[in-house]
Write a structure and sequence with these properties.
The chain is mostly helical and about 200 residues long. The protein is built from 7 helices and no strands. Helix 6 runs antiparallel to helix 7.
Length: about 200
């Protein structure tokens, strides 16, 4: 039990059917088939083009249907009065009538709201720029560093010492320590101004 296979071991992909009556094709049919330029690949391409045209037709039909439904919804929305839009227009601009329905409906209202948000964003950015400019004017770090004579003198002393002792830079440790002290003092002053 179970030792024999239920399928034959020789895979046969070709099936031959024997007919009781001989099949005869007319010479005209055989000539027409042999003379035909159509091959398997051209039939496949034709089928693919046919499928693509059907899909494109269906997509265009669906798109037209969606466009029609969207247009109907827009008409319904523009036909109903929007109480929030009217109240906001009358409270902020009492002399200007609501023109959103005459100039494009909902799209114009959305553009107006977008413009308001953009203006608010622009105003807040301008405010931040002014605040940052004021802070930068208060600090003037670069001018303080350049204008500090003690740091400049210590720096020049280190440069001069290193030029004189180019083969023995460790001989300039006193000048380097003096420069470090001046920079440390400048850093303390800077931090003191920032933390105030």
């Amino acid at each position: 039990m179970g030792q024999g296979t239920s399928k034959s071991s020789s895979p046969s992909t070709q099936h031959v059917f024997a007919s009781d009556t001989p099949v005869r094709f007319s010479q005209e049919l055989i000539d027409a088939l042999q003379a035909s330029p159509e091959t398997d690949s051209t039939r496949a391409k034709d089928l693919e083009l046919h499928i693509q045209s059907r899909v494109n037709a269906e997509l265009s039909r669906l798109e037209a249907e969606q466009t029609r439904a969207l247009r109907e919804l827009e008409e319904q929305i523009s036909a109903t009065p929007d109480s929030t839009t009217n109240s906001s227009h009358t409270s902020s601009q009492p002399s200007v009538p609501d023109q959103s329905a005459s100039r494009g409906g909902r799209d114009h209202g959305a553009k107006a709201e977008g413009d308001k948000l953009r203006d608010l964003g622009r105003q807040s950015v301008q405010k931040e720029i002014v605040e940052l400019r004021q802070k930068l004017q208060q600090r003037k770090l670069r001018e303080d560093i350049i204008g500090d004579k003690a740091v400049e003198k210590a720096k020049q002393d280190v440069v001069t010492c290193l030029r004189l002792n180019d083969r023995r830079p460790l001989d300039c440790y006193k000048e380097v320590e003096a420069f470090k002290k001046q920079v440390g003092r400048l850093e303390k002053d800077f931090l003191g101004r920032i933390l105030e």
